Amino acid sequence: MTLTAPAAVLPETAEPAPGRDHSAVWCAVSLTVAGAAGAVALVAADRAAEWGHGRPFELFWLGMLVFTLPAAYWAGRRATSSRLRLAVIVAYACFTYLPKLLRNPTGPLYHDEFAHWRQSREILLDGRLFEANPIVRVVGDFPGLHSAVASVASLTGISVWHAALAVLIGAHLLLVLGVTVLAQEIWRDGRTAAIAALAYGLNSSFLFFDTQFGYESLAIALWVWTLVALVRAMRAPAKAPIAVLLIAATVVTHHLTALGLIATMLIIAVAATIKRRDAVAATAWLLTLTAAVLTTSWLLWVAPKTAGYLDPYLAKALNQFAGMFSDNGESGRTLFKQSIAPWWEQKTAFVAQGCALAAMTAAAVHLYRTRNRDPLALAMLVLGVCYFPAVLLILTPSGAEGARRSWAFSYLGIALVVAPLAVRLLDRWAGKAAAALLTVFAIVMVGNTAAGMNPSYRFPGPPVYGSDTRALIPEVAAAADWLRATQGRGLRIVADRYSGLIFGSFGGQDPVTGSVTFPTYDVYLTQPGQPVNPALIGQLSAWRFGYLVVDRRMAREVPEIGIYFENNEPIAHNGRPGFTLGQLTKFDHTPWTIKIYDSGNIAIYRFDFASLNVPAIGGGK
């Protein structure tokens, strides 16, 4: 097998004569029934979690497996025709978007979804790209997703959220088809390609993270199709412009995916150089260099804030990782600590990693024994191996987020090199191998999803203070609506992380939640009767901040994710509230704050810095 092999007819089983084979009918009937039953079980799981009784985890996995296992059977079946296999893959892609769709069908829910919803809405309302985003400050510098969503909303007249769903469902479908096409480009076998697509769907980001309203959900599909274009350009250099176009689309959509693309292309280029050292390698290097130049140019001249945005996460993760070996592990994190996930989900999370390691080892041996000289196979093997070092970062609080994001990239390598081994096993042992592979498929799907997403992301439930998915309560939304209706939008306000999400998205305001260089949380931390740092007051006045939002729950409850404002906040996290009620009610008596709203938990104050001999400011930008 070589890169320059001509595009031959895929070694599929010949299409059966009309009227002699009813597999397509049986497949359609079985998957339709399974899909309906699975959807009912998923809805039942959500309702059980929301009402706080029943078995939501069991119902959820019953719903997922009742469809995905038959789909895997039909996709991997030797007698399945190419057209039927494609239909199964499309059905699989559509069904696997259902868990996230049912989780929040009417509006944003995850933390970053509020930022992307706001950015898309601002483009639709004002028609301007690259506007600053107060929730995630680099979002505005990568307008690929938001411009697409705003365009769909403008052309169709549907809401921003429903336009986002249309774009995201399309991206999810393109992602699955892209993995299928890429595997087919490498292995020249449709059956292997289908199994590779199903295997990629086992990665921990697939069901919830890469289906959310976030720029990575679109960018990951662009990444896969860029690799398809790269492989085709390596075989036919005249197709290189398509690869360049897709590289550019990835760069303007998401920073981490653009960096991941460069890394993946670099692996392919090095593998091509080792195996070939000819025009094929030259094309790979040329396109890799193009990706590096486009990404660097964008980060330097269009999105210069990105490095500062990413650096604290990486630096803190490395410090915590080093600290695990110098402080007896106190800087690390305990997996599934206080998790409500059932014991069998937690166990499968560890078993899944063992399955991945065993599968990769067997795939490496298989490639060695078959003397495979295709540089793409070697490149995917290297990419898959990168999955395992990232698993170690999951042991640090800051590194966990980066590890989860990396798995969507490295798991592609695992899927592509394990797929031909799975086909070989099916051909040799047929029924026994099919039963074993479907069992492993189920275990890895359950385990990786449990490792990648907390239950609060996957299931609805009662409001939980300090949760990235359950912190929204009607009281906060009502306060945000009141401020926008009475004072206007675009106001600069000081808020905590969770109020800031709602005021900054639905409320249309510009919140700040604090940072090392702008520690607005010191306003809250100052003890009653003590003066707030004059330098901070000067900053607030000079930057025209007009309002302060106080959530008094901070004095009564501990945030679920352990953050009140931002990751580096100087607040004790010892299982007790980080504030006293006096710290949060002192603004009722300070001369430079005027209460204009109070609903019990939420209070809004207008700053009056003139009382402190600070020049008066306006309420808006």
UniProtKB/TrEMBL annotation:
PANTHER family: MANNOSYLTRANSFERASE YKCB-RELATED, MEMBRANE PROTEIN. GO terms for cellular component: plasma membrane. GO terms for molecular function: pentosyltransferase activity. This is Uncharacterized protein. The lineage of its organism: Bacteria, Bacillati, Actinomycetota, Actinomycetes, Micromonosporales. It comes from the Bacteria. One of its GO terms (biological process) is lipopolysaccharide biosynthetic process. InterPro entries: LipidA_mod_glycosyltrf_83. Keywords: Cell membrane, Glycosyltransferase, Membrane, Transferase, Transmembrane, Transmembrane helix. It is found in: Cell membrane. It is a multi-pass membrane protein. The chain crosses the membrane at residues 23-45, 57-76, 160-183, 190-209, 215-231, 243-274, 280-303, 376-395, 407-426, 433-453.
